[in-house]
Amino acid sequence: MDGHDARSRWDRIWLLSVYAAVAAASLVVVVRWPQPSSELLLDFGLAGLVAVWHWWMVTAHPRWPERSAGPMTLYFVVLFGLACWLFAREPIYVLLLLACYPTAFVTLPGWLAYPGVAAVSVALAFPAVLDTGWPPPPSLLVSAGSGTALVCAVGGALRALEAEALQRRRAYEDLSATHARLSDLARRNADLQDELLDRAREAGVLTERTRMARELHDTLAQGLAGILTHLEAADGHVPPDHPARTHVEVARDTARENLAEARRWMMALRPTPLDAGTLSAAIATVVERWQDGTGTRATVKATGTPVRLRPEAEEALLRAAQEALANVARHARAGEVRVTLSFMDDVVALDVRDDGVGFDPAGAGGGGFGLTAMRHRVARFAGTLEIESAPGRGTALSVSIPAVRPEPQESECV
Fold first, then answer.
1. I need a surface site. Which of 244, 280, 283, 313 has the fewest CB within 10 A?
2. 385: which DSSP letter?
3. Residue among 354, 206, 226 nearest 269 (CA)
4. 124, 144 contact by CB (below 8 A)
5. Which of left, alpha, beta for 4 (phi over 0: left; psi -120 to 50: alpha)?
6. Quick check: helix, strand or coil at residue 343?
7. β-pair type (297-303, 336-343)
8. What Cα–Cα distance (Å) separates residue 10 from each residue in 87, 106, 165?
9. What is the Cβ-side half-sphere exposure of residue 174, based on CA atoms within 13 angstroms?
10. Mind listing the pLDDT tens digit for each residue in 64-115?
């Protein structure tokens, strides 16, 4: 049981002790005086006043004992006064005075609890002093003093235990908060490590693709270009009716086709066509080519102040635009497509909207391979992909990626 449970249990005992003392003493009074009388009614009135006072100050305001020293001091003074009055009228209300012992330690702040305990002891000993006269006998003083000392010792020990339990609870809460912070830092560190690994892999892939493109350029493409140059030169020196002319033409055409294929591979190995310009220009080029190839009207617009992102992030946005336009061409049967690239303070958003047939996103599952790949590609940069559509109302695809600037690095050209 921790300190909070112990305090709650002690509070419940103290809360019920006053009610129990009033009820038990009043029951004894009823048994002794079964016939109603003015004295009995006065006793019950005072007992009821004690119960109401205790209910108002403690039961109805449970936070006061912990936070309001002034009201609780007033509560104890009034409770003690009523208990003394009842005790003077009916000795059985000594039960209420005894309940004032723990009440003093619960309600009176700091050292004031000890004068409160002493006052209760004096009230309990007062009838004996009236019987023996003044000065009281030493035995009465010793009995009252030892009882007061015992109550003070027990109350002080309970306060010390409560303070220690409270200190332990706060230490446990601090430890729990520290553990939660460390766990959060560990998770963030793991996320950062994963991000660094992803960036390292992406950088490795881009570096390898660039190297392969350079090797193709420096070896195969240059060699084919040299062969093609010599074949074209030889073609001019071979007579039209010479048997070798056919072989020269076939070799020339084959070299030209393979050179074109090598150049296509070189372009495919480049990270993106973004090397030749900005993201806005690259998307505009993609949209223009798509419009020429499909015959569907397409417009592109950029808003905000353009910023450069990491090359991988720009490639993700460009691929998203290409995939979205490809889906429009395959499924939408749209008459118009609007592409918007928005540069905001902390995010770059790409919106592709069409006026096609639309679909029900709930019934389409997670989408095809292209959309799944797009989601994964965008998620690698902490981005989001959202699709809004309805049958007959077109489709809107929105991709948002945090605007993280690229780190300074040397550019490599092929």
1. 244
2. E
3. 206
4. yes
5. alpha
6. strand
7. parallel
8. 26, 9, 13
9. 6
10. 655 566 777 787 888 888 888 888 888 888 888 878 877 777 777 777 777 7
Tokens of 114: 């000890």
Question: What pTM was estimated for this model as a whole?
Answer: 0.38
Q: Six-digit token pair at 182?
A: 């460390």
How many angstroms separate the CA atoms of 70 and 198, rounded? 63
Residue type, 168: R
Residues linked to residue 260 through DSSP beta bridges, in sequence order = none
Q: Which helix (H) or strand (E) holds 299?
A: strand 297-303
Name, in order, each residue with C-beta under 8 angstroms of 349's C-beta and a sequence gap of 6 or more: 340, 341, 342, 398, 399, 400, 401
pLDDT at residue 274 in the model: 61
Q: What would the mean pLDDT of 165-192 be, rounded to a whole number?
A: 84
| Selection from 83, 90, 94 nearest residue 30 by Cα | 90
What are the chain's domains?
3-136 (no CATH), 274-402 (3.30.565.10)
86-99 burial string, b = 16+ CB within 10 Å, else e? bbeebebbbbbbbb
Q: Are 302 and 319 in contact (CB under 8 A)?
A: no
